[in-house]
Amino acid sequence: MPHKPFKAVIPAAGLGTRFLPATKAMPKEMLPVVDKPAIQYVVEEATHAGIEDILIIIGRNKNALSNHFDSVPELEGNLVKKGDQDRLAKVQQSNDLADIHFVRQGEPKGLGHAVLRARSHIGDHPFAVLLGDDLIDERDPLLTTMLDEHDRTGAVVIALMEVDPEHIHMYGAAAVEPTDSPDVVRVTGLVEKPKAEDAPSNLAVIGRYVLSPDVFDILERTEPGKGGEIQLTDALQEMAADSNGPGVYGVVFRGRRYDTGDRVDYIKAIVQLAADREDLGPELRPWFKEFAATL
């Protein structure tokens, strides 16, 4: 760190139907995880890895996202008058995190299509893609390791995590070969949401990618797959199979990850993060034990 000028893309155009009615008028990315919206954790992760240029792909009725990363003079002025410096600092923090841009996806045609919408902004830069459903604990850095691996190999780098084989059908699964590092593998193939008996491994693809701009040409010619969507996985599969290219590598993440795309896991994420906070944990942890004893 700092790396050559990586940019980041955060797809945030999903409808959030699993969280209705909460997401009827609020983007799912703005749902709070303790006291920050989920997307702010993702933006902070990118900036901690040294990325200062971030493009957020949004859909209709997502203006709250751009508003969150803009200044609010009336609110800030009121906090100044009250002398509430702590809250003022928290409000202003999101204003100054990075150089944040927005583009609409238009018709939602899948993750691959969302990434393709970033082409004009990314240009010929390598870039990271961070999905907002996966929150990575800042104490367990992942993205920096992935950027380092891309610098070393020039390859596409994806994040992998070992999951219970019974749950692999919920993820993309990677076929891999070992490398000299126990936490880095070479990806030879990808299977989207396989049955447990058909999965090439229990290494699941989670929502972090470091891509080269070559991916755009592949996505341009990728035919829609399941659900009529353009799948990023299909493009990665082609890059992994290209014997003349730098290939695809996977960084195996063994740290703390919070899945906020599922209602139960979203609640678990709030509980886990709140319990670890110095300002909340001392009061919450004893209460958790008392509550658990009543179940």
Automatic annotation (TrEMBL):
<dbReference type="InterPro" id="IPR005771">
    <property type="entry name" value="GalU_uridylyltTrfase_bac/arc"/>
</dbReference>
<dbReference type="InterPro" id="IPR005835">
    <property type="entry name" value="NTP_transferase_dom"/>
</dbReference>
<dbReference type="GO" id="GO:0003983">
    <property type="term" value="F:UTP:glucose-1-phosphate uridylyltransferase activity"/>
</dbReference>
<dbReference type="InterPro" id="IPR029044">
    <property type="entry name" value="Nucleotide-diphossugar_trans"/>
</dbReference>
<keyword id="KW-0808">Transferase</keyword>
<protein>
    <recommendedName>
        <fullName>UTP--glucose-1-phosphate uridylyltransferase</fullName>
        <ecNumber>2.7.7.9</ecNumber>
    </recommendedName>
</protein>
<comment type="similarity">
    <text>Belongs to the UDPGP type 2 family.</text>
</comment>
<feature type="domain" description="Nucleotidyl transferase">
    <location>
        <begin position="7"/>
        <end position="273"/>
    </location>
</feature>
<keyword id="KW-0548">Nucleotidyltransferase</keyword>
<dbReference type="Pfam" id="PF00483">
    <property type="entry name" value="NTP_transferase"/>
</dbReference>
